[in-house]
Amino acid sequence: MGSIDVSQRLTFFAALFKVDENPDLGMWMLYLTILLLSIAVYKMGFAKKLPIGKSILIYLFLGFGCTFLSFLGIFLPIAEGLVVAALILIIYKIRRHFHQKQEMDVS
To answer: Which residue of 10, 37, 40, 82 sits 20 to 30 Å from the alpha carbon of 90, by its own alpha carbon?
Structure first.
């Protein structure tokens, strides 16, 4: 039976950060990418104005969850899905901004 080539199964970001060649730096880069994308998606789509203590608690849990997601992100498109979610939310925010601007001009 032949050996499995792990580099062929890596996701885009895992291959970009070369987690198979340099696991220490690659995993940190993948973790930071997933964390930053998760924060961006949270802020754009779900964040509400909260007291500072609750915000810190949410970001701590977000950071902890991203640790788990980073391990899944090696072979599953976690970061890629977050990029798509962030793009959809950016498009939504831009369209909503222009729609509100048009309504203000009509009034």
So the answer is: 10
Contact call for residues 77 and 12 (beta carbons, < 8 A): yes
How many independent structural domains does the chain possess? 1
Contact yes or no for 84/91 (Cβ under 8 A): no
Residue type, 100: Q
Radius of gyration of the chain (CA): 18
C-alpha torsion 17→20→25→26, nearest 10: 30
Residues 25-43: pLDDT tens digits?
A: 999 999 999 999 999 999 9
**30, 19 Cβ separation under 8 angstroms:** yes
Count Cβ atoms below 10 Å from residue 46 Cβ, excluding itself: 9
> Residues 29, 95: contact at Cβ < 8 Å?
no
Residue located via tokens 């950060």: 17
Structural domain boundaries, residue 40: 6-106
Number of helices (H) and strands (E) in the chain: give both, helices first.
4, 0
Rounded to two decimals, the pTM is: 0.88
